[in-house]
Prior knowledge:
The complex is a heterodimer of chains A (141) and B (477). Chain A is mainly α and 141 residues long. In chain A, 52% of the residues lie in helices and 3% in strands. Chain A contains five helices and two strands; from the N terminus they run ααββααα. Chain A has a two-stranded antiparallel ribbon. Chain B is globular and about 70 Å long. Chain B is an all-alpha fold. Chain B starts with 13 loop residues before the first helix and ends in a 24-residue tail after the last helix. The chains are: A mainly alpha (141), B mainly alpha (477). The interface between A and B is large, with 72 and 80 residues.
Amino acid sequence: MSRxxxxxxxRNIFYGGTLFFVLLFAALILDTENRIPERSNxxxxxxxVVRGKHLWETRNCxxxxxxxxxxxxxxxxxxxxxxxxxxxxxxxxxxxQPTGAPGRRQMPQFNFTDEQLDDLVxxxxxxxxxxxxxxxxxIEG
Amino acid sequence: xQTATVKFKSQSVAxxxxxxxxGLFVGQITFGLTLGLQYVIGDLFFPAIPFNIARMVHTxxxxxxxxxxxxxxxxxxxxxxxxxxxxxxxxxxxxFWVFLAAGAATILGYLLVPYATLAQMTGNDFLATMGREFLxxxxxxxxxxxxxxxxxxxxxxxxxxxxxxxxxxxxxxMGLWGLALMFLFSFVNPSNLVRDKMYWxxxxxxxxxxxxxxxLGALLAFVLIKTTGVDREVIDKWLYLIVTMALVxxxxxxxxxxYFIGLPPYWHWVGxxxxxxxxxxxxxxMLFAFNMVxxxxxxxxxxxxxxxxxxxxxxxxxxxxxxxxxxxLSPVNYYxxxxxxxxxxxxxxxxxxxxxxxxxxISYAMPILRGREANPRRAQAWEMWSFWIMTIGMGVxxxxxxxxxxLQVWLQRIxxxxxxxxxxxxxxxxxxxxxxxxxxxxxxxGLLAYLxxxxxxxxxxxxxxxxxxxxxxxxxx
Lengths: 141, 477
């Protein structure tokens, strides 16, 4: 690098560039914030959906599954499981764990009440309705 | 061996941090191997250690030991750059024990208490922050991290304020302050999942593809300046340009996580364009490292440290740059999002950029903390072997996971009709998952070789490591 280009100049480019992109990012996030309610059907977030999300978090479901493609890759995607399996299957499946099949991946038994299972299904149903730009490519997630 | 001591006595607090970092690293890899095996033997250790618990321990240990490494590096680097003793060595030691105790208690909590009970015991109903990937820590741990970070930042900032303000010290400080600031978003958990995910990335992306790159650049520049003796003016310019590119591309590059989680479609363009440029700072780091080594004014006796530093630049470019670029554009990511491709990228990027830079720093500083300029030649040979075994082991893992990912996309994602289910696809990937285990075992062997290097003394004929003759070729660099 030439001598006329000093480290002070490089430093000023760093400060200026960073500030510009931080402000641009903040502006985009502000716009995105305003669009989230419509894209996520936030009017449909019932108390059951909120309780379901809390169960989802406190059982660390993300430690094995993905949700909208994020999480661990050990167990199936659940963002569209409502559509793939339907509410009854989901509840029966959770109640039947672990399968105990030798050598197969096992899901813990969480001893949910019927009301808790309904809450989880409500959360998964709402999640299924989020506008994800047509992701996943097919029903298998 | 040539004796050497730290220039400022208080730099020696770094040693505690480095030893703990390496210890936690071993723990991380042990749980990593467990996870790799659980991919092929599904019910291994169930129900004692289910996959999700082992994964939480694996990823949280990674974060904790890298933070330990960053803090140790800062405690070593800042007094030397500022040319003054650390503001408070006592505070540094105190915070070390607080951080270690909090980390250990958290890991034990994961292993011994059911997660839902842990959440209930630690006030998660009061402020729900748990159960989100990488941010699984109970509320008291998260608060503890903030307290330790503030104490740490206070300590090193005061040191810089009373001393010389170099570019390296300033960039490091900005990176560390940014790290702490972005962590505050871990307390933001809106009930709308879409919003929750967006702010979650403020921590995760703006750490590893933002503020951490400043830390990486500063540590790399420090090791290079010390081992090559190149003029500070030259190194400063490089450093500023690298971190400029890191933030110019990385901040809007956050958008490459916003494609399919419910956010507006313009992120496909914003995220795509800027994240496609994210390899540039990593490429510059590689040019920087090779350039500085080529223009070196001295041949430092610690050749191992130079290997780790150059290795950081190369592997960081491959892992964070190339493997990130592979699936960053939205038409590609549409098929690869949340597949084993993501896992491959995550492993190589963390190893290449952050694991290696912390080891480079430890490799440079630890001999001096132990009273000599460089380790005996035999010990350095062990370190170099360790670098190659770990790096090739990681390479095997990443190629196996990338192959698994490609096959997974082919079977499960691409077909519009009659695609294979997730679990049926997993059965088809077993060969590659075994390959990953092989790579993982190799990685552990390399890590053990690294541990051994600390206990290797000089050979019988080796008395003093003097400056190597000029023109001596660098091994492996």
